[in-house]
Write a structure and sequence with these properties.
Largest sheet: 4 strands, antiparallel
Bound molecules: calcium ion
Number of helices: 3
Number of strands: 13
Structural class: mainly beta
């Protein structure tokens, strides 16, 4: 996404803002890793694989109308950002970076996506093991590798429906479908949630409060 949203940070204050960066408040969000396998024998030709994300639960350019795409009773979404890596034999690591995508306003609406901020990739892949890293805008390759992603905006919800602007949320849901275009088959379909990671200070406060409450119960 390339827009600037000016919204209250009240939700994030409770979730725990980490520190102030150059372009505004920054805080950490989770990165999910989705391993998948492109089938076939060694030496077979590449397959055209599509990676299709659906997350943004809001229509058109403001005022935004919320649509509960995943039918979970809430409007909570991310401006997704994805990286595709080769799998690595080293535990906890990913291999060579093959592609990445932030937004796709041309493709990726077949899964019900309402907005081009949902990521999409279409590329030829040899049979083998791969890992998709998904998180919220924006994410560098380094952040995708380490799983420590600092963002200045999102995840989002809508304070009203319709809404003039997106409001910050402490989590956002997504779904991903990875398919083999040649065979027209789905390799993998999964749902997930990206969370704002509470700042260490916030965890400390919760710990102290919890301890105080435990003492009172005695
Ligand atoms: Ca929802
Ligand atoms: Ca999509
Ligand atoms: Ca995006």
């Amino acid at each position: 996404m390339k827009k600037t949203y000016i919204t209250a940070l009240s939700l994030l204050a409770t979730a725990g803002a980490a520190f102030a960066g150059g372009g505004g408040p920054e805080y950490q969000v989770t990165v999910d890793y989705i391993p998948f396998n492109v089938g076939g024998a060694r030496g077979e030709s590449p397959r055209n694989i599509t990676i299709d994300v659906r997350s943004v639960e809001a229509t058109q350019d403001g005022p935004w109308y919320g649509v509960d795409l995943n039918d979970d009773g809430e409007i909570a979404f991310i401006d997704s950002y994805i990286y595709l890596f080769k799998a690595s034999p080293v535990r906890g690591k990913v291999g060579e970076m093959l592609a990445f995508n932030d937004d796709s306003f041309e493709n990726g609406f077949g899964d019900g996506s309402l907005y081009g901020f949902d990521s999409y990739l279409s590329l030829d892949l040899l049979p083998g093991q791969y890992v998709l890293a998904i998180s919220a805008y924006s994410m560098s390759e380094e952040e995708a590798r380490t799983g420590i992603n600092f963002v200045s905006q999102g995840p989002y919800t809508l304070a009203t429906n319709p809404a003039e602007d997106w409001s910050f949320s402490d989590h956002g849901d997504y779904s991903v479908r990875i398919s083999d275009s040649f065979r027209g088959s789905t390799i993998l379909q999964t749902d997930g949630t990206i969370f704002v990671v509470p700042a260490p200070a916030a965890i400390g406060l919760v710990g102290v409060a919890g301890l105080a409450m435990a003492r009172r119960r005695r």
